[in-house]
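Deliverable D2.4 — example input (C-alpha coordinates):
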Protein backbone atom coordinates (compact mmCIF):
# COMPACT_ATOMS: atom_id res chain seq x y z
CA UNK A 1 0.00 0.00 0.00
CA UNK A 2 1.30 3.44 -0.95
CA UNK A 3 1.90 6.11 1.66
CA UNK A 4 -0.58 8.98 1.62
CA UNK A 5 0.26 12.46 2.81
CA UNK A 6 -1.28 15.90 2.61
CA UNK A 7 0.88 18.76 1.37
CA UNK A 8 0.04 22.45 1.21
CA UNK A 9 1.85 23.91 -1.80
CA UNK A 10 3.63 27.25 -1.51
CA UNK A 11 2.05 30.26 -3.20
CA UNK A 12 4.98 30.87 -5.53
CA UNK A 13 7.75 28.74 -6.99
CA UNK A 14 11.25 29.73 -5.87
CA UNK A 15 12.76 28.02 -8.98
CA UNK A 16 15.57 26.36 -7.00
CA UNK A 17 17.35 23.33 -8.47
CA UNK A 18 16.09 20.73 -7.56
CA UNK A 19 12.64 22.06 -6.81
CA UNK A 20 11.41 21.66 -3.25
CA UNK A 21 8.70 19.15 -2.37
CA UNK A 22 6.14 21.88 -1.58
CA UNK A 23 6.64 23.65 -4.90
CA UNK A 24 3.35 24.17 -6.80
CA UNK A 25 5.06 23.02 -10.01
CA UNK A 26 6.02 19.68 -8.43
CA UNK A 27 2.49 19.20 -7.07
CA UNK A 28 1.02 19.93 -10.49
CA UNK A 29 3.41 17.46 -12.19
CA UNK A 30 2.53 14.74 -9.67
CA UNK A 31 -1.17 15.46 -10.21
CA UNK A 32 -0.71 15.18 -13.98
CA UNK A 33 1.11 11.85 -13.53
CA UNK A 34 -1.75 10.51 -11.38
CA UNK A 35 0.07 10.53 -8.02
CA UNK A 36 -1.71 13.52 -6.46
CA UNK A 37 -5.17 14.99 -6.16
CA UNK A 38 -6.07 18.60 -5.44
CA UNK A 39 -8.42 19.25 -2.52
CA UNK A 40 -11.36 21.58 -3.29
CA UNK A 41 -9.46 24.01 -5.53
CA UNK A 42 -7.09 25.08 -2.74
CA UNK A 43 -3.32 24.76 -2.63
CA UNK A 44 -3.66 21.51 -0.66
CA UNK A 45 -2.81 18.23 -2.38
CA UNK A 46 -3.22 14.62 -1.29
CA UNK A 47 -0.14 12.79 -2.58
CA UNK A 48 0.30 9.04 -2.95
CA UNK A 49 3.99 8.19 -2.79
CA UNK A 50 4.98 6.63 -6.11
CA UNK A 51 6.49 3.17 -5.70
CA UNK A 52 9.45 3.84 -8.00
CA UNK A 53 11.33 6.73 -6.38
CA UNK A 54 12.42 7.85 -9.85
CA UNK A 55 8.89 9.03 -10.64
CA UNK A 56 8.90 11.38 -7.66
CA UNK A 57 12.42 12.56 -8.47
CA UNK A 58 11.46 13.15 -12.10
CA UNK A 59 8.85 15.69 -10.96
CA UNK A 60 11.62 17.74 -9.30
CA UNK A 61 14.29 18.28 -12.01
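Example output (designed residues):
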Amino acid sequence: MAKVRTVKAKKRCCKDKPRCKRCPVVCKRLEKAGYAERVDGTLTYVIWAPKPARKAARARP
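The chain has one domain: 4-58.
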